[in-house]
């Protein structure tokens, strides 16, 4: 069997109604598979105002706005229309990227049809409750995730550090890597634009600490702002540049009023924004990969990140950035202060990060997923299905 023989049913809880690293990766994967001659059908909640056009055929799944986070949709059920379309499409492999109710139903359907399932893990959902004073729910969510992923033939994570977490959580016996790529046409050191910086009142000599991503609390906005406070107490000269939008924007603006909020950027404008920073500060512990970290590295700027999944597989501590214990405000401030005050180290670490980013080619990365599909189909033809729960206890 070749890639062109694949018929992939892909379920996503968010394929294109919000622009983030996970669904952009899914769209890139669909595009790669279609270019190789495979058939791809995507099932996902939809809206009348998507963030971007979907790649491939998209079948809408019934959903409602998520309470308190209206930009997200919560899938409610697999409609009869979607079920009929799935039956007519006749997939020979399935991928699910969202561990919600419909994701469970998709896996059940695939098991009845004797179709192998690959689950891709894009975020650490079990860590989200701690940002909303609901940490007691984490074990419950982890148990639900484990039940789903053990019913799949294999799972893939964006980084080795995240894959190791999944192994330790006993989510599945077969855990692989589906990394992320970076568009070097968009993200490279040549995108640095001093005139653009000056338009915000940033002097050429002022070190810029950047934040890139959706403005939501689970991205570590509290740790970011506390660390900036520590720099101010030390009288460390710096500017803060925030690129992104989200429901916590007002909170973030109130917390660091001296920061420059450049809003949502995309394409070459995003590359210019990232390249015009002097360092990226990414305190989040919810990332499974950290696209923003890789994009900053490709632009030749050092990264100060939490020592967590994703970042640990990208940043080499003391070589291309700093990895700090999550929530350690003083240590984060120490790392930022070093880069603010020593342009030579900043340049050396940025150059090392750019060299490392050359290893991430989108076509090569997406081919590994296609090969995983083919392997799971061969295993199923030999009579091998998902490993039993008892085998991985």
UniProtKB/TrEMBL annotation:
Residues forming coiled coils: none
InterPro entries with a match to the protein in the record: Glyco_trans_4-like_N, Glycosyltransferase_grp1
Entries under Gene3D superfamilies matching the protein: Glycogen Phosphorylase B (3.40.50.2000)
Keyword Metal-binding among record annotations: no
Gene Ontology molecular function: any one: glycosyltransferase activity
Domain Glycosyltransferase subfamily 4-like N-terminal: from-to ranges: 20-185
Keywords of this entry: Transferase
Full protein name: Glycosyltransferase involved in cell wall bisynthesis
């Amino acid at each position: 069997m070749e890639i062109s023989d694949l018929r992939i049913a892909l379920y996503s809880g968010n394929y294109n109604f919000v622009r983030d690293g996970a669904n952009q990766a899914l769209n890139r994967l669909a595009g790669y598979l279609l270019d190789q001659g495979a058939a791809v059908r995507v099932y996902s909640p939809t809206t009348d105002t998507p963030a971007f056009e979907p790649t491939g055929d998209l079948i809408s799944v019934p959903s409602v706005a998520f309470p308190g986070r209206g930009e997200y949709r919560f899938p409610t059920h697999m409609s009869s229309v979607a079920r009929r379309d799935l039956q007519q499409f006749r997939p020979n492999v399935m991928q699910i990227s969202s561990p919600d109710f419909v994701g469970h139903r998709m896996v059940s359907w695939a098991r009845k049809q004797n179709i192998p399932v690959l689950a891709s893990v894009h975020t650490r959902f079990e860590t989200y409750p701690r940002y909303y004073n609901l940490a007691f729910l984490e074990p419950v969510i982890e148990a639900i995730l484990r039940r789903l992923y053990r019913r799949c033939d294999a799972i893939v994570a964006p980084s080795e550090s995240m894959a190791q977490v999944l192994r330790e959580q006993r989510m599945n016996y077969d855990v692989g890597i589906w990394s992320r790529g970076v568009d070097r046409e968009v993200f490279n050191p040549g995108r640095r634009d001093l005139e653009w910086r000056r338009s915000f009142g940033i002097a050429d000599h002022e070190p810029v600490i950047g934040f890139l991503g959706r403005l939501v609390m689970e991205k570590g906005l509290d740790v970011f702002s506390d660390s900036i406070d520590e720099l101010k107490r030390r009288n460390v000269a710096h500017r803060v540049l925030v690129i992104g939008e989200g429901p916590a924007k007002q909170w973030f603006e109130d917390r660091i009023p001296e920061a420059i909020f450049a809003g949502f950027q995309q394409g070459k404008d995003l590359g210019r924004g990232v390249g015009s920073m002097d360092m990226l500060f990414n305190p989040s512990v919810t990332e499974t990969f950290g696209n923003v970290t890789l994009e900053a590295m490709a632009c030749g700027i050092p990264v100060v990140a939490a020592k967590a999944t994703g970042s640990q597989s990208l940043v080499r501590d003391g070589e291309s950035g700093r990895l700090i214990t999550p929530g350690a405000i003083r240590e984060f401030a120490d790392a930022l202060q070093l880069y603010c005050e020593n342009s030579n180290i900043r340049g050396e670490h940025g150059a090392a990060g750019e060299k490392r980013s050359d290893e991430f080619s989108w076509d090569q990365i997406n081919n590994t997923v296609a090969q995983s599909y083919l392997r799971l189909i061969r295993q199923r033809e030999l009579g091998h299905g998902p490993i039993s729960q008892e085998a991985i206890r």
